[in-house]
Structure formats: C-alpha cells, structure tokens
C-alpha cells in the first residue's frame, strides 16, 4: 500500500512540484543577479604591488633620460577663446621637450600659465600615442583640454560711511572677461563721495599673444576732488600704459593733464607757481611680492612693494624733474580665534629733485606725500598713500 501510494501522490500534485522548482530557480537567479550587481558596484582596487610598480615606472621615467618626441600639440575646448591666446600661454618648451622629464616640467608650467589667464575653469594636459605611420617609436601627441568659464561679467557695489568724519561714498566696479576671445579683462570703476570727490577709471589688460613679448595694459582715469581743509580744487585726467609686466615686475608710463585752482586766492607764492594747467609725465617701475591669502581681508602672509618713479619728463614742464622712491611692507598674523588676524604695515618714501625748475626744487603737489592722503585721519588708520 505504501509503495503504491507514493507514485500516486506525486502524480496527484504535479503543479506543486513544478512551482517549487521554479521558486528555487528564481531564488537562484535573484542571488546571481545580486552578486553581479555587487561585482559591478565594487570596482577592483589596485593592489599595493601594482601601485608600487606604477610609482617605480613613473620615478624611472622622470629620473632617467628617457627620450621622447612631441609630434603635435592639440588644443581642445576653445569655443569663444582664440587659439592664439592659449598657444601663447603653452609656449615653446612643450613641443620642444626631448625627454619625459622635460615634458612633465613643461606641461606643469604650461598648465599654470593657462590657469593664470583667468578664462578657464579646468585645464588638463595628457599624452597620447602618435597615429600610425609617424616615424619614431617615441612620438607622442600632447592634448591640452580646457573648459571655458561660464560667467564673463562681474560687478561690485558698496556704500561706505564714516560717522566720525561725516563722510560717505559710493563705490562700484564692473569687470568683463574674455569679451573678444583674447582672455582680456575690461574693467570700469567709480567712486562718488559726498565731499565732492569723483574718481572714474576704465582699463584693459590683454595677456601676451603671439610675438608680443609682454602683456598689454592700458588705463584711463579721471579725478576731481576738493582738498580737505584747503581752498584748492584739483582736476586730473591721465593715461597709463604698461611697458613691461610680469608676475613681480611692472614698468609703466604715465601721462596726465592736471588743473589746480584756488578759489580763495590765499595760497603762498610757492603754491601759486603750480596753479593752473600742467602736463605730468613719468615712468614708474614697481617690484611687488604678495604672499597673503587675501588682498581685501588677509589673515596670514606678507607682502611688500618697492617702486621708483622718475617724473617731470614732459617738455617745457614747469615742474621740476624728480625721483620718487617708495617702499611698503605688510604682514598678517593669524590669531587662531574666530578667523581673526592682526595686520600691520609700514610705508616710507622720499622725493629727490633732479634739477631746479622755475619753481626751485619743489616737486608737484599731487606727487608729494601726505599723512593719510588728502582726507581726514579721524576714525581711520593711514600713513603715506598705501601702495598695496
């Protein structure tokens, strides 16, 4: 009975047996799918031996004289930026590199110069094998990939009030970057004060392009102000052109037309000789190093500037020729509390006449040193006009 009933029970429930088998197969398939997904999620990490081998290869390539030949340098990612601007930043050292070590150094320097153009968000330089048919086994192609910055315009507007001196000024500036594709920077700024002071300026800075050995910097400015505690009123319009500009060195030529009037007619004889119209011409050299973390609100670092200016170069100028030497030192020390810092600085200058003019050895009024400038010292710290 038992032997006969066993096959009958199996035959009576065939669907149950098949469903169970299907369930087991589905479970197995799910387990396999889960394992596949886990394998996909967990990327194989390089073993310590592979990392050590890679570091050894890189160390050998940069330490030994491994010969290489750059077949071509391709620049990709320039949409509105002209290729000539990027090619000038890349320089000639990269395509002339003859060893891997020289190529790595030239690539690092080129990437830094491209970043300093200020027109790109990211810069990457990679190597690729030369296409088939190129003679030489060590021929490579250098790929320079850049991503242009999206925002080309920036502006600032601020209102500054000093309750102690009852003065208020409105200051604003606008900057346009890479407007014509040369990575140039156009800027305009203005300062309007309630003390009848108006200062407007606009300028452009174009980086080195092609055969031009130095960046082009030009600026036009206008200044109108009433001198504090004085009846003198000054109007000045000037042009400044950069002759040489590097990271630390700057040589510029300044030409300005100045008008000083005395409404009270109570000036001394030495001052009356400088009233009216005059043409100021000068060449100024400046050496500047700034290692601070911020120019507006530094919390650590130091900066110093040394400048030398030769003035009175305009023909038939009634102002005496002179040499103006200035030095400005600044240091920022962090306090370690609430991101606070102590900022200290010292500035000094000297003016030495080169020849006696019609007014003796008097230097121009606008070029002389004033403690804190031509404005009040109340509620503010100031020395000779800040250079940084």
TrEMBL record:
Its main location: plastid. Gene3D superfamilies: membrane protein fhac: a member of the omp85/tpsb transporter family (2.40.160.50). It holds the Pfam family Omp85. Residues 178-377 form the Bacterial surface antigen (D15) domain. Keywords: Membrane, Plastid, Plastid outer membrane. Residues 1-53 are annotated as: Disordered. The keyword Lyase does not apply. It is found in: Plastid, Chloroplast outer membrane. InterPro entries: Bac_surfAg_D15, D15-like. GO terms for cellular component: chloroplast outer membrane. Residues 15-43 have a biased composition (Acidic residues). It comes from the Eukaryota. This is Bacterial surface antigen (D15) domain-containing protein. It comes from Oryza rufipogon. The lineage of its organism: Eukaryota, Viridiplantae, Streptophyta, Embryophyta, Tracheophyta.
């Amino acid at each position: 009975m038992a032997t006969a009933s066993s096959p009958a029970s199996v035959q009576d429930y065939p669907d149950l047996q098949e469903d169970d088998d299907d369930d087991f197969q589905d479970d197995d398939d799910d387990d396999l799918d889960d394992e596949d997904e886990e394998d996909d999620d967990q990327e194989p990490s390089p073993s310590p031996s592979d990392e050590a081998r890679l570091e050894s290869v890189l160390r050998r390539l940069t330490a030994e004289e491994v010969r290489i030949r750059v077949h071509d340098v391709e620049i990709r990612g320039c949409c509105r930026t002209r290729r000539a601007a990027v090619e000038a930043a890349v320089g000639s050292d990269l395509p002339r590199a003859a060893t891997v070590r020289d190529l790595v150094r030239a690539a690092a320097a080129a990437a830094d110069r491209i970043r300093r153009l200020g027109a790109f968000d990211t810069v990457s330089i990679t190597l690729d094998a030369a296409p088939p048919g190129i003679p030489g086994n060590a021929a490579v192609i250098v790929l320079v990939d850049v991503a242009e910055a999206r925002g080309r315009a920036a502006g600032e507007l601020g209102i500054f009030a000093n309750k102690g001196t009852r003065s208020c000024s409105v200051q604003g500036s606008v900057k346009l970057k890479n407007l014509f594709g040369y990575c140039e920077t156009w800027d305009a700024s203005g300062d309007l004060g309630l003390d009848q002071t108006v200062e407007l300026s606009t300028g452009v800075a174009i980086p080195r392009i092609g055969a031009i050995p130095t960046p082009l910097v030009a600026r036009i400015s206008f200044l109108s102000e009433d001198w504090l505690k004085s009846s003198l009123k000054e109007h000045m319009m000037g042009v400044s052109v950069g002759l040489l500009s590097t990271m630390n060195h700057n040589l510029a030529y300044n030409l300005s037309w100045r008008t000083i009037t005395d409404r009270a007619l109570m000036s001394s004889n030495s001052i009356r000789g400088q009233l009216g119209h005059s043409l100021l011409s000068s060449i100024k050299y400046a050496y500047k190093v700034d290692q601070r973390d911020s120019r507006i609100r530094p919390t650590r670092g130091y900066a110093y500037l040394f400048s030398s200016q030769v003035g009175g170069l305009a023909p038939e100028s009634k102002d005496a020729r002179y040499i103006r030497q200035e030095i400005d030192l600044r240091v920022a020390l962090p306090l370690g509390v609430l991101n606070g810092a102590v900022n200290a600085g010292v500035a000094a200058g000297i003016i030495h006449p080169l020849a006696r003019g019609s007014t003796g050895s008097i230097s121009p009024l606008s070029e002389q040193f004033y403690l804190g400038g031509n404005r009040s010292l109340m509620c503010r710290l100031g020395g000779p006009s800040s250079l940084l």
